């Protein structure tokens, strides 16, 4: 990468003074990059962008290389100066020339969709996780019926609904530990490999590119992804519990949950208007389009579909509470027939 910068030449359309200044800046950037002083590399690149703002080679080729391919077919121009301004302001000890493809947290970000706007990898990963959750919850909430212990649950000195809520919260916490633990361990192991580093969670990524270059720290993207998974976990747990109140068959329960998860790829929502589909949970699997406001989510702010999804989760659990309350009501005895 440093050789490429050294060999880079300013555009022929630049003035002689700008060409001389740009060549001097390229040499300094190459020298500092070779010494791995990445914070200084960011400052020198920002200086070059300010010194020679009309150099299209610097703007569109040399300093844009780390971002090439990030936006797929979307015709989006990244504000490179804004990215480096953010890096310098936060004094990030990492530079896109190295960190975009080699730092462990950035590699994790790529896997979760920070740079895969048109690929199906992040969405497929989410579908696999949701399918596993559907099978787990579908089997778990019919377990009492399979073991004939449901009568014991009904005799507990607490409401069935409160017991199931606490049970679900504990299960979701354990699932978070089971998922996040290996992810953290693998990320740390990758950082120990040659030519790799851990990276920085404040490293900026471009969000909402349809509205221009808007930057958020990497940790914020991870939080957005984690919230979606947890909302899905609560929704699927509620769905499994609701199905179990109707059918005690685990196969039926799991099948119903899988239909909900895969309703979008199975085109089960095609009978609804496109705008109506975006208010249904099966649509909330389009990662990272949901975070970047692309395609069908272009006009929907992130906070809006998050609030909609939360409302679905709360409504589902409220419905479960009502159904359980109705089931717990004692049935009136049949009226006695008058004696003949």
From TrEMBL:
Keywords: Membrane, Transmembrane, Transmembrane helix
TM helices/strands, residue ranges: 124-143, 169-193, 223-245, 252-272, 305-326
Protein name: Uncharacterized protein
Gene source species: Schleiferilactobacillus shenzhenensis LY-73
Taxonomic lineage of the native organism: Bacteria, Bacillati, Bacillota, Bacilli, Lactobacillales
């Amino acid at each position: 990468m440093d050789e490429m910068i050294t060999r880079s030449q300013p555009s022929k359309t630049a003035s002689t003074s700008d060409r001389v200044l740009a060549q001097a800046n390229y040499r300094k950037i190459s020298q500092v990059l070779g010494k791995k002083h990445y914070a200084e590399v960011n400052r020198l690149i920002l200086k070059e962008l300010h010194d020679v703002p009309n150099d299209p080679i610097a703007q569109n080729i040399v300093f844009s290389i780390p971002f090439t391919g990030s936006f797929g077919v979307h015709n989006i121009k990244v504000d490179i100066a804004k990215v480096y301004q953010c890096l310098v302001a936060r004094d990030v000890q990492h530079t896109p020339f190295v960190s975009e493809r080699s730092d462990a947290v950035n590699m994790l970000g790529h896997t979760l969709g920070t740079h895969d706007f048109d690929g199906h990898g992040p969405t497929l990963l989410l579908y696999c996780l949701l399918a596993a959750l559907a099978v787990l919850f579908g089997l778990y909430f019919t377990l009492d019926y399979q073991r004939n212990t449901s009568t014991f649950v009904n005799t507990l000195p607490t409401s069935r609904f409160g017991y199931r809520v606490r049970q679900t919260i504990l299960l979701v916490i354990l699932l978070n530990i089971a998922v996040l633990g290996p992810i953290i361990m693998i990320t740390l192991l990758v950082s120990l490999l040659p030519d790799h580093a851990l990276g920085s969670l404040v490293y900026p990524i471009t969000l909402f590119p349809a509205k221009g270059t808007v930057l958020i720290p990497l940790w914020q993207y991870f939080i957005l992804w984690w919230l979606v998974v947890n909302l899905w976990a609560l929704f699927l747990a509620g769905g499994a519990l609701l199905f179990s109140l109707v059918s005690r068959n685990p196969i039926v329960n799991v099948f119903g949950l899988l239909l909900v998860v895969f309703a979008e790829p199975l085109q089960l929502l095609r009978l609804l208007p496109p705008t109506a589909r975006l208010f249904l949970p099966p649509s909330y699997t389009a990662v990272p389009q949901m975070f970047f406001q692309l395609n069908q989510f272009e006009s929907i702010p992130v906070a809006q579909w998050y609030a909609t999804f939360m409302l679905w989760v709360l409504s589902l659990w409220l419905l479960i509470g009502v159904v359980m309350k109705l089931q717990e009501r004692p049935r009136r005895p049949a009226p006695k027939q008058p004696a003949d």
